[in-house]
Sequence to fold (576 residues):
Amino acid sequence: MRDFSDDHRALSINTATVRKQGDLVAITEACARADIKAISPWRDQVAHVGLNRAVAAVKDAGLELSGYCRGGMFPADAARLQEATDDNRRAVDEAVALGAPCLVLVVGGLPQYSRLGSPVSKDIDAARAMVEDGIATLLEYSSQAGLPLAIEPLHPMYAADRACVNTMRQALDICDRVDPERTGMLGLAVDVYHVWWDPELKEQIRRTGQDRLLAYHVCDWLVPTTDLLLDRGMMGDGVIDLRGIREAVEAVGFAGYSEVEIFSENNWWKRPMEEVLATCIERHRTVV
Amino acid sequence: MRDFSDDHRALSINTATVRKQGDLVAITEACARADIKAISPWRDQVAHVGLNRAVAAVKDAGLELSGYCRGGMFPADAARLQEATDDNRRAVDEAVALGAPCLVLVVGGLPQYSRLGSPVSKDIDAARAMVEDGIATLLEYSSQAGLPLAIEPLHPMYAADRACVNTMRQALDICDRVDPERTGMLGLAVDVYHVWWDPELKEQIRRTGQDRLLAYHVCDWLVPTTDLLLDRGMMGDGVIDLRGIREAVEAVGFAGYSEVEIFSENNWWKRPMEEVLATCIERHRTVV
Fold:
């Protein structure tokens, strides 16, 4: 396993972690000052400053990208299907412009939450079929652009409204069906927050393999967790065996960034950006 | 599938659903007035009125039980292991005294949450091993008493602090290892709240089979869910395909009670008991 204790070259900051403290340009500048090598930006943060300015800011700060967040939200009624397709193609184009190594897919839940205005449904199997169709369709476009798609299995507590792909096994089954030749253009984004509880975690990490392990996200699970979405913990403050999981992903050959993604309305989003980044660095060296 | 529209003979009330509105005696009386045939009481509610009085109240109200909540909380350090064993044996004895058809097991999460005072651990695999040992040990005692144990897989959002058995597959794997002869003394309590999201739900229901499907719990998953524990929805108010799941459990021969278990701090716990029970009856007939 790589030794992170001496430097933080393998640290990436998902820009949602400090989204309340500044815009994307401010975040790139703060990362450069903290000698952070990589970020993973969100589309709304890119749109806020404009794509060209975002591309320039990333370049000026000497940053690499560890991913781009996010495409997906596939389930939709027929009237909104074209909207979803167009939206996802734009996400691919932006990711390419920014030099991202992959587009992270949060696949969407039931259609009424995935694409607002779609009729109410309780058929999660149907939503899952729409997700698989959507991934297959987008993959044709993204493959031509040479951009890998990273399916992110989300914690089951988000199954209804954010992502109906909820385990690594399920995501890998989709990969096997949609990309059986393992072209390198479809894989997983593995976020410890979503998968740490899975009794099959280690087995499914081995099944993923280096070629399909496209991104690795860290944070921590707090006890108690006071909000389903916005109460993620800083690495080390919760119950996740971070070293054990990193050991497993590195054992299959993963050598990429450890990307910190923390949504924390009442704690980390309220602290100064420099303090948050300094804490990410310290925890990266000591507990990740 | 059974037709529930004309009567509510198959309805059971888990007494936590109205725990704020009255004690166990008051609940049994209200259930009798509403012509409800069964309840599933909690240990603390039984202890509050005393076991003998609880037994008499159930009998006086002409009620059956659909389960007894709950044993479990197995992970513990060595100093607290005997406490856990003794506590679970008392739960078995109480269930037998009350005439319960099974003891529901919420198996516990990491030892520091399962048995307070145990040292802090992040090793969920170790906790799971303790759970399996605990079930095997308790099964010797409960089998002699003729009382089946029902492992309740809990939603993954409770993996740290309440139950590290989080899928039906995982629970059934434990059953296969601990009770390979399928003695009828070990099975599952299937609560739609915990398992509705599982891509393998229908497959694992078939695998469970009639002999291991010991209890069936209903409520609903709300969007948004504002609290991880105390914001369960009334059947019909959320996104769970209740009819589809009941069809699957009845297809394997389940013919028991549909037990309503709702923890709802800001809604159903604040309404009069009669209104809650009347709503359970109406939803049982129309959407369960």
Summary: The first helix of chain A runs from residue 24 to 33. The CA atoms of residues 175 and 181 of chain A lie 10 Å apart. Chain A touches chain B at residues 110, 113, 122-124, 128, 155-157, 159-161, 164, 166-167, 169-170, 196-199, 221, 223-225, 228, 238-241, 244 (CB under 8 Å).
